[in-house]
Design a protein that fits this description.
Elements (H helix, E strand, L loop, with lengths): L10 H29 L3 H28 L9 H16 L3 H32 L3 H34 L7
Helix pairs in contact: 1-2, 1-3, 1-4, 2-5, 3-4, 4-5
Length: about 170
């Protein structure tokens, strides 16, 4: 079994290290999405975020299979990037008092997280391909594709509803 090595001396070690960070990122996002779903005012946004939560849960399950194959026993690395994305989103959302603006803010922050994950999974797929790890490469590529599908849904929703609503939102000063 692989131990919690802090030395990365080859591409395989780098892939394993990054994969251990993925689970932390996915778990942090899984824990936060229900709160954000509740905050969303748009029913369509709530629906897309629920689908994203389902996608995140699937990623976690599939990553567990990767850990089993790789004999990774310790996955307790913290993904500080995901924590920073979540903290940034929460900070901005705290300043949004109008629902339409809050929805636009939430959607934009989710897309930032989504783009980070597209990049991370794409890189992991490239590493796995370089290492001739076809099954693992397929797993990471599938996660990347799932993230891109969510990104497309979010982009369409932003363009055709959320940003238009935010543009016309009227904030009443009391």
């Amino acid at each position: 079994m692989k131990e919690d090595n802090t030395v990365i001396n080859n591409l395989h070690n780098l892939l394993d290290f990054d994969a251990r960070k993925f689970i932390s990122a996915e778990v942090e996002l899984k824990n936060k999405l229900p709160t954000w779903i509740t905050l969303a005012g748009s029913l369509k946004l709530k629906t897309v975020l629920q689908k994203y939560l389902d996608c995140v849960q699937q990623h976690i399950q599939k990553m567990e299979a990767f850990y089993e194959v790789e004999k990774i026993i310790s996955v307790n690395l913290t993904n500080r990037i995901m924590l920073a994305f979540i903290a940034e989103a929460d900070e901005k959302l705290a300043y949004c008092k109008e629902t339409a603006i809050s929805d636009a803010c939430l959607l934009a922050n989710i897309q930032s997280i989504n783009h980070f994950k597209i990049s991370a999974y794409g890189t992991a797929a490239a590493f796995a391909n370089a290492l001739n790890m076809e099954k693992q490469a397929a797993l990471f590529h599938e996660a990347e594709i799932n993230e891109k599908k969510i990104d497309d849904r979010l982009s369409q929703l932003a363009e055709h509803e959320i940003n238009m609503d935010a543009k016309t939102a009227v904030f009443l000063h009391t």
